[in-house]
Amino acid sequence: MAEFTGFPAGKVKFTPLPNLFFSELLPAIDDLAELKVTLHVFWLLHGKKGYPRYVTLKELSADGVLLKGLMALGKPPEEALQEGLERAVARGALLRLVAETDDGEEQWYFLNTDAGRRTVAKIKSGILKLGATVVPSEPRAVERPNIFILYEQNIGMLSPMIAEELKEAEKTYPAAWIEEAFKIAVERNARNWRYVRSILERWATQGKDDELKKDRRRYIKGKYAEYIEH
Description:
Layout: H1 19-28, H2 32-46, E1 55-56, H3 57-61, H4 64-71, H5 77-91, E2 94-101, E3 104-111, H6 114-125, E4 133-135, H7 146-154, H8 160-172, H9 175-187, H10 193-206, H11 208-219
Antiparallel strand pairs: 1-3, 2-3, 2-4
Helix pairs in contact: 2-5, 4-5, 7-9, 9-10, 10-11
């Protein structure tokens, strides 16, 4: 891992981010590609001049800084870029227009701000003409891993760090185990990922069925406990 040497002394340029990004958008983002792409679009648009301000898929696909950051995710950067854009559009952070130009189809991305929404509306209505024909399109739904849904329903809001742990767990353990482990954590009022993870790790090392039988026996009391089928 390359070490960051810190910000230099003197004047340093800044890219402003709305407070709502930190209070609402950031806690909801559960994918690193989505986070990197969203932040990069903020950075690129802040550096643009004139009107309207948008970035194209062609620009993003040729952006060495962005692609280098996406390479760290362990998949082809072009694939990570497309996934990140799809998630950002589906979440509502970015607005996308598909346009037919003389050079073929292009994808334009705008921030979902008041200015961005008004600009997109003007382009769609024909008030603002950019030498292209806008193609009607809807954002494709992004299928989220079931483990994310289980976490949010039973524990709470996701953070990027927890999201990475959940992805690894989903690759390691069967889906049925994960669902049952969450259920047990809720029943025992231990609503945290550390507890769920410990259940999964114990099942992987000691055997799931044997462990469940031991757990049931702890809760069976009384004169005829030894005759109860486990």
